[in-house]
Structures are given as structure tokens and as C-alpha cells.
Amino acid sequence: MSKCVSLPRRARLLAGSLALLLSSASSAQAASIDQAVETLIAPVSQFTSALIFFTLPLFGAELPLVVLWLIAGAVFCTVYFNFINVRGLGHAFRLVRGDYADPKDKGEVSHFQALATAVSGTVGIGNIGGVAIAISLGGPGVLFWMVLAGFLGMSTKFVECALATHYRRQNADGSVSGGPMFYLAHGLAERGLPRLGRALGRFYAVGIVIGCLGIGNMFQSNQAFMQFVNVTGGAEASWFADKGWLFGLIMAALIGIVIIGGIKSIARVTEKVVPVMALLYCSMALLVLAMNAEAIPYAIGAIFQGAFTAEGIAGGTLGAIIIGFQRAVFSNEAGIGSSAIAHAAVRTRQPMTEGYVSLLEPLVDTIIICSLTGLVIVTTLYYDPALTNGYGGIEMTSRAFERNVAWFPLPLSVAALLFAFSTAISWSYYGLKGWSYLFGEGRLGRNLFKGLFCTFIVIGSMIQLQSMLDLSDALVFVICVPNILGIFLLAPVIKRELKRYQRKLASGEILDHRARASLSPTTTSTKASDPANG
Q: Which has the minimum average pLDDT: 82-96, 209-223, 253-267, 296-310?
């Protein structure tokens, strides 16, 4: 009860702080609004990044401990679950297709909608701009380690999404709440660690709320605005060049219209937007690669050579590994636990099904889309070795596309806007569930959070790349600490449930509703009376 009473006061404090920030920015006479906000954010960004990405020197490279923690979690999940990232792919596709779906199951969205919502949260500007930054920092070799990180991350996704669905909570209004904060609290309580579980659950909830205001909206709106300015005349000629606030207001209004309806509204949008944006972007990338066909052997050679020699990169091969894994996690969020919040809303009685479905996230996000972006950039380097000099983030990727087709930056900007839009609406849900975990499920609290989220979209479009990148990285990486710890401690629960699920599947106790629907009308009519389902 005390949480509910204190909510308005905390919201007023947040609103007051935000108003002070905007007021300070608008009062700057010698600098633009954008520069004023950058001046305020940069020190916070530098301090936060230094704290979270604490490094140890190793073989000439600086090894961030948080990245090592994520790698350890991914390797553990892959080995402990006997390469479920390979064995489970076929079943994952059948689940997404709807073979085992029963509309009577509890939950709010279908398997495909849950996957689309989660993919929309991971397939964002990082797939376009983040890959370019990784290559500029670590050379072509980082792509090898990004793909490997995506492959291992599939196993991490399996565990965290299965846990989120297993420990989810049914609310009084019929909605569902799940995610790392719930499986940390309830799962560790089952293992005799209730205090640790509650503490880690609250820590994660606070982290996902703060993180969603960085990676989930500010970074997305920032990079989308940069691409929009680029295609409307550039920093010198575009009318929007100094009007990031206006771009942010428009984007915030569109996002607000969607998120006000909750997860069902978000899922209805993402299941349509995600396939369109993925098809648009992949088609453009494949066309560029076809035009750069003679450079593909060079690109493959540069990627493998750079992965194991990494000449000119600080720390050699280890430096390339660190950059590759860090960028992969920034893209697909495996080990962060964020997308598990969306997967927990699925309609199913078998939590393991959503573990299988989540395997497809890093496959689509990192192994396919990030690889295509990387290959476009590396093949362009064959013709233009200076591509990585002087450009940052999405602008570099845009230049690579533009070299082949002069008007490609325009559809690329459309894809970037869709990526940013879809990522923001998904992350609004993640942040909202963290907020509700801390303050309760009241309507007032939910609406206050949604307003705060949209406000930070405006702020994000007013901040320059470097501070935004550092802050986003830091805020999203910190929540992997409790999440990976929870995965280590609760993995035996999922292993037990997985064996149980596989026995039911093999015995036919879990029905293939798609196959039954293709049988005779008599057989189909008895389906509703059968209690077993997937």
C-alpha cells in the first residue's frame, strides 16, 4: 500500500527533474538546445560507463568484466542444454507457425506475436548503426565474433524466456506479467534464497526502467533523427538539422498512440511492422551484395583474418572478441533478459514452448540482419577503404548503401525509422513491467510511466551520438548481472521442465493442433474436448 501512496510523489519528482533539465537546455543562449542537453548528459554518461564497464588489462586488451560475465552465461547455457540452439530450431519454427497453438490457453498474445514483439525490441538502430561502429572500432574481424555471440546467445535466450514463462504471474484483470524480476524473486525463493531473490528482482526492475529510457528510446530516436537529417539535406542544408526536439515530438506522439493500448496493441503493430521492415532492409542489403559480388571473397577473407589476427586493433584478437561480443549483446540482448518480458505474455500452458520460440530471435537479429549489414560495409571497404574514417554509426551504413544506389539512403531511412519505432514500442512494455513490479499495476502509475517514456524520446533526438551510445550501453548492460546469476541458479529447473516437455511431446500428450485440423471433420470435432494442448 505504501508503494501506491508514494507513487504520485515520486512521479512528481521525476517530472520536476525533467522540467529542470529542459529548462536549463532552453535557457542556453550561446549554444543550441541540442548542445545544451549534450553538455548536461555527457558527464553522467562518462561516469556511468566507467563504473559499469570496469575493465582489467589482459594480453594488451582491456577486458570489461560485464562482457566476460555475458560470455560465461552464453557458453554455460549452450553446453548445459546440449546445444539446444541447434537441436531446437525445427521445433521452434513449428511453434511459430502455430502447430501447437490452442486459443483457449491463458496469455495475451500468440507465439508469433510474442516473437514479433521481442524481435522488434532487438532489431533496431543497433543493427544498422551499431554494426558500423563495431567495424570502425575493431575492423572486419568483429563480425565473426558477433555471429558467434549470436549463436551462443540463442541458448541464453532459451533459458531466460522459458524461465519468464514458467514463473509468470496472472493479474486480476486477465493480463500477464513476467520477466527476470519475477523468476529471480520466486525462483530463488523456491531454492531457499527469498531475500536474495527479492533484492535481485527489485534491482533488475529498477535497471530495466532506467535502461528502457536509454537503449529503448533515446538511442533509437537519436539515430533515426540523424538518418532523417541526412536524407533531407544533411547537417548543413536540412531544415531539421537543429530541430531534434520537433522530430522527437512527432515520434513520441506516434509511439504514444500505440503503447497506450498495452501489449495486445503493441503485438498487433509489431506482427505487421517486423516482417515488412525486415524484408525491406534485407532486400536492400542483398541487392547491394549482389552488386558488390566481386568483393565478397575479399570480405570473407578480411573477416576471418581480422577475427584471429586483428592487426592494428588494441589487444589483437582479444580486442576483436570483446568488441564483437559487446556489439552482439547490444543488438540481440541475450543475457539481458529484456525480451523475456514479452515472451512471458504468450498464450500457452507449456512454458518450454516459448523457450524454443525465443531461439529465433538472435538468429534473425544477429546472425542474419547484423551479418548482412556487416557484409555491406566490408564489401564497400574493398572499393572505398576510407569509408570508416569520418563517419559514425548509421551514417556510415548509409554511405555504404549510397555508393551502389544513390537513392538507397531514402528507403534506408524508412527502414531505420521503422526499426526505431518498433524497438521503442517494445521497450516501453519492458520498462512498464519493471515499473509495475516496483509500484503496482494501477492505471495512474502505468500512464505516468508511458508519459515519461515518450518524453525521453524527445530528449534522445536532441543528443549527439557518442554520449548517447555510451549511456545506452551502460544502462542496458548492468541488468545482465542479476539476470545471468539467476540463470546459473535456476538452470536445473528448466532442465527438469524441458525433459518433462519432451516426454509429453514424444508421447503425443501435447497435441499438434495443425495436424489434427487437417484430419476428418469427425476427428476435428472432438478436439475441443481433449484437455491436452501445447
A: 209-223
- Check: CB of residue 495 under 8 Å from CB of residue 81: yes
| Average pLDDT of the segment spanning 409-428 | 85
Which tens digits make up the pLDDT trace of 138-156? 788 889 988 998 999 999 9
CA 114 – CA 339 distance, rounded (Å):
9
**pLDDT-derived band at 15, boundaries 50, 70, 90:** very low
Which grid cell sits at 56? 582489467
pLDDT number for residue 159: 96
CA 292 and chain centroid, separation: 30
Q: Are 404 and 390 in contact (CB under 8 A)?
A: no
DSSP alpha helices (H): ranges in 232-261?
234-237, 244-259
Under 8 Å between Cβ of 397 and 376:
yes
Helix (H, G, I), strand (E, B) or coil at 37: helix
Query: What integer best gives the mean pLDDT of the chain?
Result: 81
pLDDT at 534 > cutoff 50 = no
Residues in Cβ contact with 278 at an 8 Å cutoff, skipping those fewer than 6 apart:
119, 123, 364, 369
The residue among 311 and 502 whose pLDDT is bigger is 502
Whether the predicted pLDDT of 403 surpasses 70:
yes
Helix, coil or strand: residue 108 = coil
Place of cell 557458453: 75
Please state, in angstroms and rounded to a whole number, the distance separating the CA atoms of residues 329 and 333.
5
Q: Residue 109 gets which letter from DSSP? A: B
User: Three-class SS of residue 81?
Assistant: coil
Q: What is the residue-wise DSSP string for 12-27?
A: HHHHHHHHHHHHHHHT
Residue 429: count of CB within 10 angstroms of its CB? 25
Look up residue 162 and give its three cell numbers. 522459458
Q: How confident is the model over 392-409, as a mean pLDDT?
A: 84
Grid coordinates representing 290 are: 549482389
Confirm if 116 and 429 have CB atoms less than 8 A apart: no
**Whole-angstrom distance, CA of residue 10 vs CA of residue 229:** 36
Give the residues across from 61 on adjacent strands: 58
Pairing, β 55-58 against β 61-64: antiparallel
* DSSP assignment of 274-311: HHHHHHHHHHHHHHHHHHTGGGHHHHHHHHHHHHHT-T
Distances (CA, A) of 74 to 16, 49, 119, 267, 343: 41, 23, 19, 28, 19
Q: Count Cα neighbours of 219 within 13 Å in the Cβ-side half-sphere.
A: 35
